[in-house]
Amino acid sequence: MIARLRDERGVTLIELLIGMVVTLVIFGATLTVVTAVSRSAQRTNEHNEAQDVARTYMDRLARELRNLASPSIFTEDYQAQPYAVDSAGPYDLVFRMVDEVRAAGSLNQANVKRVRYCLDATDPSRGKLYQQEQAWTNRASNDPPPLPALGACPGAGWTRTALVSENIVNRVGGQNRPMFVYNSADLQRISQIHADLYVDTTPGEAPVETRLGSGVTLRNQNRVPVARLDVDQSGSRLVLNGSASEDPEGMPLTYQWYLDPPTPLPNCDLLPKPASCVAEGVVADAPLTPGNHRIVLVVKDPAGLPAVAEVNYP
């Protein structure tokens, strides 16, 4: 009887401690797994949120680019000015668009404003995308104020500045993945813009970065025409031919000739030839006088957007 009771007396202290240790190990391992899963889920949620915010502003950028304004500006030195895209860099884009609401009494009748998107990569692993706007009411639409300095992002001199997206890693790890790519290096010939944003809340860890891309054709972009001229000698006169000039949209062009600018040539397409009239014909002629001459052809599309060709003769 005593032996039987002795057999049923329970577990020893050592056995109890071993059981507790095993339980703690199992509980700790379970807790570690749960914590890791929870942390992973949190990182995934943060990544998805950052991705959604970036996608929202990619869509907004695309809409704004499709609403470009195209004011044409022409100066006395025959140089065309940027008219829709003011600056086109790999991490900095400035363009003009039409705002939806116009202030009462504004001289800016078309309600054109400048919009800037730029990347602050001071910390490449936590890049920040800023949107800045420059609006004006005291100047005409085709007479905008000077473009603010673009050295810093964000920069001073803008009417409005907003941080629109974070965790942009286009330049993480010394990489130089452009945020904007253009189909032309000439501001006046840009008709397509492709935007790429790389989003990653935990560079080097899971989840991996996400690439968001969007390509936009600038449907309101009135591309600059192309001016070409040929010069032939006929007796004592020069025959000037601009028929090789063309407009990308296929619109008709007007022609204005200059011999040693700024003096315009008389229009030689009209008969009888007027004594004082600006040359606007595809073909014109000029007297051949001794010395070197600068011959300039200015062509304009129906919107007044100009292009210039010039030669020195002989």
Report what the structure shows.
It is elongated, with a radius of gyration of 34 Å. Helix content is 19%, strand content 30%. It has 2 domains: 53-217, no CATH class; 230-313, Immunoglobulin-like (Sandwich). The N and C termini lie far apart (133 Å). A 5-stranded antiparallel β-sheet has the order 1-2-3-4-5, with helices on one face. A 3-stranded antiparallel β-sheet has the order 6-7-8, covered by helices on one side. It is α+β, with helices and mostly antiparallel strands and 314 residues long. It is built from 2 helices and 14 strands, in the order H-H-E-E-E-E-E-E-E-E-E-E-E-E-E-E.
Key descriptive features of the protein:
314 residues; alpha+beta; Immunoglobulin-like; three-stranded antiparallel sheet; 14 strands
Give a quick summary of the entry:
The chain is an alpha+beta fold. About 20% of the residues lie in helices and about 30% in strands.
Strand content: 25-35%
Overall mean confidence score, pLDDT:
83
Radius of gyration: 34 Å
For the biggest sheet, the summary is: 5 strands, antiparallel
Tell me, what's the shape?
Answer: elongated
Helix content: 10-25%
Query: What's the number of helices?
Result: 2
Structure summary, number of beta strands: 14
Helix-strand string: HHEEEEEEEEEEEEEE
Poorly predicted residue ranges: 71-82, 274-278
Strand order of the largest sheet: 1-2-3-4-5
Structural class: alpha+beta
The separation of the N and C termini measures 133 Å
Number of domains: 2
